[in-house]
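#struct-help
A.M.: can someone run this one for me? Single chain, 109 residues.
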Amino acid sequence: MAEDKEKRTPLSAMRDAWMALTGAISSAETEVHKRFYESLGLSPDANLGAELLTKVRKNREEFERRIDEGVKAAVAKVRAPIDKEIASLKERVEKLQKKVEERRAKDKK
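D.P.: on it. Structure tokens below:
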């Protein structure tokens, strides 16, 4: 075995180094790939395109829901004083109507 190592040519040594390097790069790529998928909360064998589309749809729906809730809350805040004013005006109109009816009844006598 020691004789085999001594007989290595520079070309075979370069080939061995190249193979080791490509193996290390491949291993590193696999690890990066695995970590990337894990950072997205996916398994490494997941269909990235389909998973991303699903997440985009889910996020869009959540965003739309939050926008709707925000708009409803803002409208409710604006409407509260208006509804209160309408109730007050309605009460005043009813009082005035009652006075008008009382005056008409008084004038008929």
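A.M.: thanks! The chain has three helices and no strands.
D.P.: also worth noting: The chain has a mean pLDDT of 85.
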